[in-house]
Every structure is written in C-alpha cells, then in structure tokens.
Amino acid sequence: MVNEDLGKQQKVAIIHQVKEEVSQGRLSENLHVDPSGLVTVTTANRVGTVGIRAVPLPQDVTHLLEGSSELIRTLEHVNMSQREGRNLEVSPRTLEAIAGLKAQLESLLQGRKWRSAVDRIWAFGPRRCGPNILLNSIEGYQRPSVWQCLGSSENPAEAAGQAAVLRDFDNSIISGFQLATLSGPMCEEPLMGVCFSVERWDVQSNPQPQHQDSLEEDSVSDEAIVDNTSETSIQAEGMKAGPSQTRRKAEAASADCYGPVSGQLIAAMKDACRHAFQAQPQRLMAAMYTCEIMATADVLGRVYGVLGKREGRVLHEEMKEGTDMFMIKAVLPVAESFGFADEIRKRTSGLASPQLVFSHWEVINSDPYWVPTTEEEYLHFGEKADSTNQALKYMNAVRRRKGLYVEEKIVEHAEKQRTLSKNK
Fold it and tell me: What's the predicted TM-score (pTM) here?
C-alpha cells in the first residue's frame, strides 16, 4: 500500500539521516557520500568499488514502465536467451512493441542529463520488469544493450571483449540493484520512479583466488617472483621466504572470511543504491482507491466528514436526474480504507453506500524526515514538530507492522514517578 519515490525538495532543511551522518562523520570507512549525491562503497576486502547516483525519473516515464511490465519481462527473457546462446523466435508484433517502447522512452527522456540514456539502460527493476532503471555511466565500459534484439548493437562480441575484466561480475551488479529496488530503506517496500546511475565500478584485474588452498597460493606467488626478478634478487628473496609465506597465508585467511567477490559486490551495490536513495529528497507513494458514493442530500455533510477524516479528496459530485440522490466521486488512500464502509454506513444510518476500486499510485508531498530549522518554523510547529505528518505516520505504521526499528520517544522528561496503589 506504500511505495517509495524520489520527490522534489520543498524546503532547505535536514531531511534525511545520511546528511546528519555525513556532518557528524559517522559513516564507515567503506562508504563515502559526496556533497553532489554520489555514493561510493568499497567491498570489505578492498577488491571492488562502486559509485552510484540516484536520480528521479519523470512521472510519465514511471507510468510508462509500470504499464509495460509484461513487455519488459518479454524483453528480458529474449536477452537472457541470447546470452545463453539459445535461439528464441520472437514475433514481429512483439518486436514492434519493443521498438515502440524504446521510441517512447527516447521521446520522454529529453534533456542534457538524459542524453543517450535509453541506449545505456543496464536493467529494469525490481524483478527485472519494474518501474526503476539501472543506467550505465561508466567511462570505457561498453556492454551489450538491452535492446540488442532490435539489432541496435552492431557488434556485441567486440563490446564484450572490451569489458572482459568487468563482465565477470556484471550479473552481481544487476543482482544488487534488484535487491535494492525490491526493498527500499524507508519501510522495506519496492521503489518506484528511481534511476540509479553507475558512475564508477573498479575491480582488481587479478584478484586473489579465494577457493584455492594456501599451498597453491604459495606456489603461484613463488613463480611470480621467479618470473619478475633477476637471479640476484631470487637469492635475496629466498632468505626471506619464511616470513613472506606466513604473511601470505594470513592475507589469504583474512580474504576467505569475506566470502566470494561476487557476493561482496552484490552487498556493496545494494548498500550503495540505498544510501544514494537516502542522499536525495525522499517521498512515499500511497496506493489510492477511487471511491463512488451514493447518498441523499441530508447526509452529504457526514459523508464529507468521514472522507476528510481519512485523508480523502472529493473530485466531483452530481445529482442523478429524477431522484434526490447524489453521486460523489473521491479518491481515498488504501491505508485509510480499512473500516471505511462500516463507518460511513454508521454515520449516515445506512443512507450512503461506498464502492472502492483501485485507481493509481500517488506521491505524498509531505517529507517523513522533515524537522523545523528556521525561527518561523520553530514558532509555528514547536521544537518537537509533533504535528500530524501523514508520510511519517504511514512509514512508522509499516515499519512497526514488519518489526523494524521505529524512531520515536516513548517517555519524555521522566522526572516524576507516579505510584498507583492497589485497590484493596
């Protein structure tokens, strides 16, 4: 019922936890947040580094991707078949639909920051068919396009050869992106309308093989010493073989405790996407019902009262010809719809009957992390700013239901103690 979205910043304020952590220097050594919003995460064994930037997608693009999920799933299935070397026959009608989707994206993604963005799409998510995009903005990394079934990639083999070093862990980056978009940082719900641009991806070209035993590692390192040094240096290194072997064994043991590089890249990519999302203004998206209510003129005020109490919004009302009944059309958040029909019947003594149908997703404009900063805001909202925040209320309700941590004060100014005596 609640999804997460990147929205426009309404006020200059401390609106999320990442900026507080940056200002207080509480970020870990493996994480760096640039003031421009670029988040760089390094794996635990210092082998890989990922740099991610989160950008909100235009609303029209989000709606297009959400409505084309089946077509995107077909496109992903065709691309997977081509990567596995299988020939999958695609009907001309499907190819025309995929070409039409690409043309629509190119027409909607206009501007300097979206230049050639459609051809650089890495993947869609979550579940490889969602309304989020992973963008390839790495210099020098040319990978096969997701539109290769249309013949847009002239020579995929050459492109794969240029990025042979990075292609080994290409699927790890996609998997981390899928995990990050499937559960956002606000209330572990899927993301909507977010573009994650990968601007940096560094992996050591020859990482230490972690599945081999220490004897193989020692033999490989000794052969490297023989190939790269002269005879005099070999004799000098031979005298120090004991301490160096011990050091190499310790390094191999410490590398093994972190697990394979692919798994570390998945975790680093997921963390980078989550922190990049938090480095931008965040908004929740609420599922909305279309509510049609038939009521008499005597109970219109009570109907409006119930709708206003549950954050509903009346779109229009009209009177049915020949009767004294009014048709009211409104939108109501799904999170507020539980018990709505019973309450409206009780308040109107059964003279109004609602009908709820799912309509769309709508961005909640209020910021769940907003706090007062200016003097006028302190005077209006108070230091605690404990006035009703719809987005914060929804977010805390979801987190509490899922057993996640909720930041709230249960006891404030506990200076007095009240002892209740037992009734005898």
Answer: 0.73
